[in-house]
């Protein structure tokens, strides 16, 4: 009997199976297991070596599997899925168990197991399909407990269809009477997470608060805190986020669960990014790595590497940053996460901001993020930001205009500072002064914070004062611009962010020049230039070394021709461009320099 059980289990396992897995599946005591294994080896059915067993003849394996009743075969697939540690292998066995199970409710519960295994294996399409099948079965059977299990089986990932399904399932399940506290807290927590990704911030805040208030065990507290962290991860939530981080770290250390401690430490890092404490982030990274080393799976390693890469980038250690990013992306691609491409493009955009953008980032293809319209705005704004850096203002202006009125932009609590900062920098460059004023009003209350995309995304862009200085400069408010940019430079130097110190100094030098203090501009540029060269910040080296102020090389050429009295048509002929392009260049020059007419441009050129 034991021999038949062992032979069937080995047949279901596939071509090869580890002996420890096989023993766990059959559940035999060690001596009985070894005795049956020895008998099968002696009979020539199995071969054993290096801790693994396989069939000497594949036809024998297929025959042994075929002789098993469907119920027994389904049970062995289930047991094997629970025993193996390779996600893809577990997914295969859960899928087989689903196919062999006739009972609708039991099949649905197996589909939830399949969905979770598929997520770990990086097969998100299969995961979504399995979860949807389970939810349909729950509705058909009018089994709200099953629907509740389906609602919490998967976590939101930033895809509308996926997140929308989770939100809908939670909403339906929460409407059921007589829910236990445990079920209600889990549903509220998951509903809050989905609501965040769907941009329903009020709902997310309410649901996460209710979940946190009702959580009465450590496990439920972990889920409630996780939802609350996601719902309160903006610049106004720093104190609450810090408290949640402390509670999560304490839960992790007191229970010995490294995966819980890891979450808390990631939240603590988010708090430190908002305060710009790069030294403390460096220290915390070691603790993150320690936690990740004790957690199975790739997500912990990804977070450690991304934190290290972001820290290196903030410190202007560009080569290290890109190397760490490449390593992190390799980890993320291994699990097939849909955010991989967006994370890579965003990071390379930040590197390019200081070192120069690649041709790929200047093109349009890399900014395609699939069919999820929620990311279209970010793609347009970020590409416009890149085009502004490259001096391609006409294209940047067109993208910015297609982004619509900033008042209509969807809110993203965690990314509030980053969205408004990039919007402000683009608006300032393309002359959208009304929008610049609105962005400045939104960013002003956050003085002393640093521009990041919270909730683990990082995307560090220096102190808020840096963008406020750029806004003031675009509005020709020279005293305010000088004060903010001087403050930004001091903050960057104090935290050890030399790349942003160079940027602040360059913008300040351009403000001095535009406001008429040319000697001060030249002195500051000369003082900053060696550091920019040392760091390899080629675009900023060019801006500091070339007395064009805020103008691009092409705009300087146009300004020189304006100073010579040429009309737009004559400028177009001289530079072999269209008259419309020449007109746009002249308008950008007037906007950048804060001038009202061409005579002021001519006077500015003569002073240079």
From TrEMBL:
Gene3D superfamilies: Tetratricopeptide repeat domain, Winged helix-like DNA-binding domain superfamily/Winged helix DNA-binding domain. Keywords: DNA-binding. PROSITE patterns: HTH_LUXR_2. Transmembrane segments: none annotated. Pfam families: GerE. InterPro entries: Sig_transdc_resp-reg_C-effctor, TPR-like_helical_dom_sf, TPR_rpt, Tscrpt_reg_LuxR_C, WalR-like, WH-like_DNA-bd_sf. One of its GO terms (biological process) is regulation of DNA-templated transcription. SUPFAM superfamilies: C-terminal effector domain of the bipartite response regulators, TPR-like. SMART domains: HTH_LUXR (SM00421), TPR (SM00028). GO terms for molecular function: DNA binding. Residues 544-608 form the HTH luxR-type domain. PANTHER family: TWO-COMPONENT RESPONSE REGULATOR. This is LuxR family transcriptional regulator. The lineage of its organism: Bacteria, Bacillati, Actinomycetota, Actinomycetes, Propionibacteriales.
């Amino acid at each position: 009997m034991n021999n038949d059980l062992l032979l069937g289990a080995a047949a279901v396992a596939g071509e090869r199976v580890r002996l420890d897995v096989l023993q766990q599946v059959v559940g035999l005591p060690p001596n009985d297991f070894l005795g049956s294994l020895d008998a099968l080896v002696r009979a020539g059915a199995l071969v054993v070596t290096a801790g693994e067993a396989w069939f000497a003849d594949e036809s024998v394996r297929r025959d042994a599997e075929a002789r098993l009743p469907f119920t027994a075969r389904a049970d062995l697939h289930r047991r094997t899925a629970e025993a193996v540690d390779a996600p893809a292998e577990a997914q295969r066995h859960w899928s087989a168990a689903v196919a062999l199970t006739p009972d609708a409710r039991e099949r649905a519960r197996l589909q939830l197991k399949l969905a979770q295994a598929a997520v770990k294996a990086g097969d998100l399409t299969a995961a979504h399909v399995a979860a949807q099948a389970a939810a349909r079965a729950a509705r058909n059977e009018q089994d709200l407990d099953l629907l509740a299990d389906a609602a919490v089986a998967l976590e939101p990932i930033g895809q509308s269809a996926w997140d929308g399904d989770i939100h809908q399932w939670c909403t339906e399940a929460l409407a059921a009477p007589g829910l236990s506290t445990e079920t209600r807290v889990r549903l509220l927590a998951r509903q809050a997470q989905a609501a965040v990704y769907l941009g329903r911030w009020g709902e997310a805040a309410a649901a996460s608060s209710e979940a946190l208030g009702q959580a009465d065990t450590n496990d439920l507290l972990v889920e409630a805190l996780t939802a609350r962290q996601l719902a309160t991860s903006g610049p106004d939530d720093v104190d609450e986020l810090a408290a949640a981080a402390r509670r999560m770290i304490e839960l992790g250390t007191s229970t010995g669960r490294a995966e819980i401690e890891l979450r808390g430490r990631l939240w603590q890092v988010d708090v430190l990014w908002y305060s710009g404490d790069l030294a403390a982030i460096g220290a915390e990274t070691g603790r993150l790595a320690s936690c990740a080393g004790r957690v199975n799976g790739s997500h912990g390693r990804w977070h450690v590497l991304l934190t290290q890469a972001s820290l290196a980038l903030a410190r202007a250690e560009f080569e290290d940053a890109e190397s760490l990013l490449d390593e992190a992306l390799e980890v993320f691609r291994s699990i097939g996460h849909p955010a991989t491409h967006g994370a890579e493009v965003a990071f390379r955009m930040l590197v390019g901001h200081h070192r120069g953008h690649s041709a790929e980032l200047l093109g349009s293809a890399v900014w395609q993020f699939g069919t999820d319209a929620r990311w279209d705005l970010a793609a347009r704004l970020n590409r416009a930001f890149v085009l502004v850096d490259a001096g391609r203002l006409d294209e940047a202006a067109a993208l910015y205009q297609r982004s619509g009125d900033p008042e209509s932009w969807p809110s993203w609590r965690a990314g509030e500072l980053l969205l408004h900062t990039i919007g402000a920098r683009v608006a300032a460059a393309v002359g959208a002064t009304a929008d610049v004023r609105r962005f400045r009003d939104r960013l002003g209350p956050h003085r002393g914070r640093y521009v990041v995309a919270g909730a683990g995304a990082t995307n560090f862009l220096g102190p808020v004062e840096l963008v406020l200085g750029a806004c003031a400069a675009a509005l020709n408010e020279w005293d305010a611009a000088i004060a903010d940019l001087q403050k930004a430079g001091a903050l960057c130097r104090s935290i050890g962010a030399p790349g942003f110190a160079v940027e602040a100094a360059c913008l300040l030098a351009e403000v001095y020049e535009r406001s008429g203090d040319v000697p001060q501009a030249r002195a500051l540029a000369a003082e900053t230039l060696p550091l920019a060269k040392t760091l390899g910040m080629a675009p900023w080296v060019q801006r500091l070394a070339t007395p064009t102020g805020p103008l691009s090389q092409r705009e300087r050429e146009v300004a020189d021709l304006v100073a010579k009295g040429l009309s737009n048509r004559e400028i177009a002929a001289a530079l072999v461009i269209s008259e419309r392009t020449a007109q746009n260049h002249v308008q950008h020059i007037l906007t950048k320099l804060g001038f009202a007419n061409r005579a002021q441009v001519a006077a500015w050129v003569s002073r240079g």
